[in-house]
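Model it.
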Amino acid sequence: MALTVPDPFVWDTSFQTFYDTIDDHHKAIFNGIVDCTKENTAANKKKLVDVVKNHFAHEDSEFIVHKYPEGASHTAAHNAFTAKLEAASVPLDDATVKFAKEWLVNHIKTIDFKYKGKLG
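Modeled.
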């Protein structure tokens, strides 16, 4: 079941994982998507992709360190999302922006929330 995408599209405490670095990364991804809607440029898309890759690298390393059992499938979801973003042409079309927003909201609240309290 798809969750409601907030409008305006901003991070709020309903997305909180209680890991400060991860929450800060999630905020940056929200902001990166918004930046792409305000100024739909190659520079903003690159910035978004870089923020996403940095976050996923951090999260994936936490899975390894803490032997998180769902790490492999979680990393696969990260890789698929990153590939879709990287493949998108600029300017990002409405469908791609909608996909990114929906994916992020659903990923945080259904997938990321599974690791709450399990990463040390």
